[in-house]
Fold this sequence. Notes:
alpha/beta
Amino acid sequence: MGKAFKYGDNVDTDVIIPARHLNTSEPSELAKFCMEDIDKDFVKNVKSGDVIVAGENFGCGSSREHAPIAIKASGVCCVIASSFARIFYRNSFNIGLPIFESKEASSAIQMGDEVSVDFETGEITNITRGEKYKAQPLPEFMRAIIDADGLINYIKKNIK
């Protein structure tokens, strides 16, 4: 459960982690600059377990993995959006960041709302407003990748 940080449509990877900070791939360093071009106070206010909520086409732009790495390293537990750019979608699961598509949740959740997400059922609860929304639940194999903290760790753990 965490606080929602709400953004609009077409939040691209250059906004999530500006290119000027891509001289490292160290997660803790990337987290220091996460969302700074769209929300200067994000890094000061985000806490472990918080949620990013956005509109259509979240994560469009470049194919770099730095964007979901920065989000995850900042403490965000998941991203909820109306839709995701496909490469961002895949990169998120590759690095162990859960994401959920829900137009209903995306439009109803407001900045600062307290939100919880059940990864198994896909149920999103807006505690602040007393509302529930539905997203596609994560398949078991994708939850296993999330639990392993990403695809590489999953492979190391399960493939012999």
